[in-house]
Amino acid sequence: MKIETILFDLDGTLLDTNDLIMGSFQHTIKQYADREYTEDEIQAFIGPPLRDSLMKIRPDQVDEMMDTYRSHNLENHDRLVKAFDGVFETVKNLHEKGIKMAIVTSKLRDTAIKGMVLTGIDQFFDVIIGLDDVDNAKPHPEALVEAMDQLKADPMTTMMVGDNSHDLEAAHNAGVLATGVAWSAKGTEFLQTFDPHYMLEHISDLEKIVEGK
Which of 1, 52, 184, 203 has the fewest CB atoms lying closer than 10 Å? Predict the structure, then answer.
């Protein structure tokens, strides 16, 4: 099958933001939670919309927690965010091959753009769908469908690349090829339970896939 369009998750897929996100959660939890949380518990918060995750900690102080989290995140963003190995080169090559690409993220649009500009990949994406652009977050297919509408893409020739269950479920729900990444903090064994069509060992594997190799 010829791939003409690729939709990407951002955090944990193209950008290595794990230390930033973990640090922001730990900073927030220390101030508001009534107990300590393990790293595994915090990992489970990564992926869904921030409000949904913080609701599980202190539902009565979610707004204050979101302010604390975002303040810490913004303050440390440029120091801790970087692109994964090969990301810049791969998305540049895909762009030059004429592959249509979009970012579909559970982050707010402005925050997503900040990381993209920092790592230089913003120039390769005409479409960015953030949490504030849709009514329903992944795994609902709305964000993927909106991205495809803007790109005038055919679901039959589109893939969604992500590092979390929400990305793969959203891909299945939108009728596009679900593609996991082996560098996911969740681990490949976890991702395999969501039936990905592809599992990338390195981001450059995408070039072989679009070339039909």
Answer: 1
